């Protein structure tokens, strides 16, 4: 039969035992061209119409050690074998090839085994591969693993699962890896107490790949593994060196939490956040807690988020506020509200705490909230930062619809206790903040404290701060000194305001001028009067107008020939006072 005739029959799918036998005989022909044609035909069969007989033929070729070229072509044929259903006999024949000393033959056999469709595999066939998981040859174990993975749920027999549980504890890491991979593909049907116990041990495996695989499996089975041993082991894995493994452990805990959330889990997640070195490490346990809160917002879960408000990580505190807000009025206990009010004082998350309180149904302008903020500002010390309180008070005023009046009303409650060096320094610091709302709140606070409870210490801090390079801050501080009034009428204060009256910035000069007028007659020194007369010639009309007002406030001491002449001159200025 010619080669073309053979190919034609193959093309028409007419592949019989007779044809395969004929091609096998042709391989033994002394004519190389005949042998080549035969192997070409076998190769084509392997790609288009593979049969059990073909596999048997190729196995015989490889065992009979034909010419090297034919051996190579036979190997190629094996690799090209399509997806077919194999008998136990063929599988065992291919398995036997896995033990061949020739690495090429072993690889081809493994490729062929992996390609065979084992959906109809019998328990006897499956048992062959389970047995191979313990083979001394790592390549054979690897091949057996690949085949069992392809079996999927079909491999979920009691014998296979029992062997896989043992394999997870096997001393050879490659065997443990194989077992993990097979279990992952089998899925929920592999869940037994023995498997769970073995997976808990695998979570502590020295090999990161096995730890990751164990986490992934526990994630997939989720609700079926809610026991304390699993939870405890996964909590430990949250500290794993590998970020990927920590994520996997987090997801596994999240799935388990759907069915069962224990105190141990909540405490462990909280500790994991506290012990973490960075936000990326805190992200995973925090995500689990958020998932738990969504499904089961119990008091214990809420308590964990309240504790998270104190963790030294802005993003964690922000997300804790959001989680509490998402829970809603169910979380509106005194303990939670008080914790959020304390969090208001943290300027980095003030807005988040405000939103949380509002979602809990709390009126931010209520006496309870305002009293708490006032008390907090009164108790500021060197270790605290009242900028958050200022932002919160500022927000209250804004929500009330009359921002300035509301903020002033709140700050008007603040007594002498608030006029400390620490509070004033912090408010001066807030004047430098990039947020305009915070600067306004700090400015208002300084003015209100200055009106009600000015102390020598406060005046000293304000004078020191007047050296600031920013003109708007210098102007604000001059205004604060003016609001103190006669109490600020010291030689040092007047000299500083006199210097400010000569400032290059017109706003600073105007603020200094107004402050001198508020201090009154005690500010009427010759130096001040001369400086005010000079300021009447300034190009800025609003400054000239302010000088006129100040001269009127200072009183009779300014009634000198020079002042009168300057005022007469100012009367000729259509833009002046």
UniProtKB/TrEMBL annotation:
Extent of the HEAT repeats: 125-162
Pfam families from the UniProt entry: HEAT_2
SUPFAM superfamilies per UniProt: ARM repeat
Repeat region (ARM), residues: 124-151
A GO molecular function held by the record: oxidoreductase activity
Superkingdom of the source species: Eukaryota
Protein role: Catalyzes the hydroxylation of the N(6)-(4-aminobutyl)-L-lysine intermediate produced by deoxyhypusine synthase/DHPS on a critical lysine of the eukaryotic translation initiation factor 5A/eIF-5A. This is the second step of the post-translational modification of that lysine into an unusual amino acid residue named hypusine. Hypusination is unique to mature eIF-5A factor and is essential for its function.
Protein name per UniProt: Uncharacterized protein
Lineage, uppermost ranks: Eukaryota, Metazoa, Spiralia, Gnathifera, Rotifera
């Amino acid at each position: 039969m010619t080669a073309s005739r053979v190919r034609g029959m193959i093309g028409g799918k007419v592949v019989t035992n007779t044809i395969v036998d004929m091609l096998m005989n042709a391989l033994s022909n002394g004519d190389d061209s005949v042998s080549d044609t035969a192997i070409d035909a076998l190769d084509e069969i392997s790609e288009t119409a593979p049969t059990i007989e073909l596999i048997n033929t190729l196995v015989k070729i490889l065992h009979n050690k034909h010419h090297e070229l034919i051996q190579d072509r036979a190997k190629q044929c094996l690799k090209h074998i399509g997806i077919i259903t194999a008998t136990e006999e063929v599988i065992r024949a291919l398995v036997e090839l896995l033990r061949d000393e020739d690495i090429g033959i072993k690889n081809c056999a493994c490729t062929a085994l992996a390609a065979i469709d084992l959906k109809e595999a019998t328990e006897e066939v499956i048992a062959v591969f389970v047995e191979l998981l313990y083979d001394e040859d790592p390549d054979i174990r690897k091949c057996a693993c690949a085949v069992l993975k392809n079996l999927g749920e079909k491999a979920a027999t009691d014998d296979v699962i029992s062997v896989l549980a043992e394999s997870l504890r096997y001393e050879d890491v490659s065997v443990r890896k194989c077992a993990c991979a097979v279990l992952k593909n089998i899925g929920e049907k592999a869940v037994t107490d023995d498997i769970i116990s073995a997976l808990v041990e695998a979570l502590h495996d020295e090999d990161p790949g096995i730890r990751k695989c164990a986490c992934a499996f526990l994630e997939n089975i989720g609700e079926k593994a809610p026991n304390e041993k699993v939870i405890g082991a996964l909590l430990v894995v949250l500290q794993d060196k590998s970020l990927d493994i920590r994520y996997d452990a987090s997801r596994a805990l999240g799935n388990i939490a759907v069915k069962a959330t224990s105190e141990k889990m909540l405490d462990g997640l909280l500790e994991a956040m506290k012990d973490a070195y960075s936000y990326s490490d805190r992200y995973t346990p925090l995500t689990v807690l958020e998932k738990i809160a969504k499904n089961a917002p119990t008091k214990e879960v809420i308590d964990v988020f309240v504790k998270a408000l104190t963790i030294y990580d802005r993003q964690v505190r922000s997300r804790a506020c959001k989680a509490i807000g998402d829970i809603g009025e169910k979380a509106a206990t005194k303990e939670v509200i008080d914790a959020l009010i304390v969090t208001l004082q943290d300027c980095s998350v003030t807005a988040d705490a405000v939103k949380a309180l509002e979602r809990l149904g709390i009126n931010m302008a209520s006496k309870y909230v305002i009293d708490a903020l006032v008390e907090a500002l009164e108790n500021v010390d060197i270790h605290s930062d009242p900028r958050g309180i200022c932002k919160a008070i500022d927000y209250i005023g804004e929500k009330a619809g009359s921002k300035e009046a509301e903020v002033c009303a709140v700050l008007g409650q603040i007594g002498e206790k608030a006029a400390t060096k620490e509070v004033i320094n912090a408010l001066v610091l807030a004047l430098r903040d990039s947020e305009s709302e915070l600067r306004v709140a700090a400015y208002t606070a300084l003015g209100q404290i200055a009106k009600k409870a000015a102390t020598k210490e406060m005046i000293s801090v304000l004078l020191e701060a007047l050296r600031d390079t920013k003109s708007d801050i210098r102007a604000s501080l001059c205004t604060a000194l003016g609001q103190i009034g006669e109490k600020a009428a010291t030689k040092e204060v007047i000299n500083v305001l006199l210097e400010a009256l000569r400032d290059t910035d017109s706003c600073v000069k105007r603020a200094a001028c107004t402050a001198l007028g508020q201090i009154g007659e005690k500010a009427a020194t010759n130096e001040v009067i001369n400086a005010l007369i000079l300021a009447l010639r300034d190009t800025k009309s609003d400054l000239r107008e302010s000088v006129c007002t100040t001269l009127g406030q200072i009183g009779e001491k300014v009634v000198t020939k020079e002042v009168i002449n300057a005022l007469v001159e100012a009367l000729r200025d259509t833009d002046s006072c």
